[in-house]
Predict the structure.
Amino acid sequence: MSDYKKPLPEIQPYSQAFWDGTKQHKLLIQHCNSCDSNIFYPRRDCPKCWSQDMGWIEASGKAQVYTYSVTLEGVEQKFVEDLPIILAWIDLPEGIRMHTNLVECEPEDVHIGMEVEVVFRDVTDEITLPYFRPVKA
Amino acid sequence: MSKRGLAIVGIGEVPTLRNPERTRWDILLDVCMEAVRDAGIDKNRIGAVISNNPMAQPGMQNDMSLGKIPEVMGLEGCRDIAICNAGGASTTNCLRLAEQHIDSGQVDFVLIPHTTVQSDIPPQDLINFFATAPLDKQFEYPYGVTFNGSMGLITQRYMYETGATEEELAAVTVALRAWGALDPLSIFYGKPITLDDVMNSRMISTPLKAKECNLLADGGGAMVVTSRDIAKEMGDKAVYKLGHGTRFMSATPMLREDVFHRQSYRESSQDALSQAGLSIHDMDLRQIYGAYPYTQCSALEGYGVCEEGQGAKLWAEGRCGPGGDIPCTTMGDATGRGHTGSGVSMAFYLDTVRQLRGQAGERQVQNCEHAILTTSGGSVMNTCTTVFGRAIK
């Protein structure tokens, strides 16, 4: 695992819980206990009400493809082995939009509105990245 | 005496190229001297130098931030220097700061330069720069997103919502390159392309093809600005700022509710037009810096030139390119002129001045009296819209 050469997320103190969650194969979303909003990406203070009373909820892991783009070239060398890369923005029922890669599918099978679900990949001993794959019919 | 208002009275620009032998300082000195000479003023009347920050070029950034320009050029009347960075909207910030200096009455003329050389930076470093500077290093970068990929995501959604086809969007690039092919300052001078050229170019990040992505080039430009009152004494060379509006959306594209920036284009243009006392239908030219084809469409929709979702059709019908009845972006945008980094929008202002002066050669828009210009920075974090005219209304 330690030969992973691609960039790892630059974790912030207030996003540590998110990455602790993915390591346990849970997708956590930051939640403001004061104004009851779900927040992505994690921040120190609630961007809506500036409360510091922040917690976490576990997402269902389901989502819908809002848009996607299949990258065929123009990436840094360390990503070349992954081409084609299916970039996507996905909408979670918890009301947030995330950037991800769609995996376990072919580029030609992807479409806007497609139902997807989270899948976790332990890329190093410390870091687990969440990806999404089509929900099997 | 209050000296309100702003006018551009001098311009200088070098052709966009990829040639590392033409250094950053070569470009800088050439464009600054040309702009001062074009204004017809003595160099020592420049009271401030407000530079575009040359991102990804730390040596030049230090020189420009820490006062080398007035020293090297012997600008003996220079009272202040500053540097502005807002990515592709940097020139807009330079203009706003320049206007503040001029309004203060302390300074009569401000020199605003831009220089960039990207041809001596390794391609892998540039990909890294554009994948990390304007995008999120925690939640985007680990997924292999590039700047092209990020804009591909938005373009795909734009096509889905509007029904615009790949051919219609490709027509935007054909028209922008047609403007560039007529412009001796473009890296694509004399090099028009066809719809087939765009459609058959390599796919980079769907639906964006190679010809729809930016060629990173070297270039630069400069302008001299002053107050309206002083400009009026300088004759036909003056081009007046008549109104300005701006809207910020978000740093990170995925967090943007206004995905295609229509609302932001609409509100910033309405602010600018209302200050100018003009309507979008009074504009003879629309200069849109968006760097990617969908912005040339959604800006027209936001401005109210056409209905939402109809922007690409206007381009496909040939109405926005040379000979069209809605001329747009005669500067060619970055895809038609070469992308010159964070000071890229300088050339939009310079080309607007040329058009309003009647100096745009084969690209000249007939009877060009008013122009609207929008710049954006980062990954389209904002829209900064200005209305210019060749006379004060």
Residues 16-23 of chain A form the longest helix (8 residues). Chain A has a mean pLDDT of 96. The interface with chain B takes residues 6-12, 15, 40-41, 66-77, 79, 82, 85, 87-89, 97-101, 107, 112, 129 of chain A (CB under 8 Å).
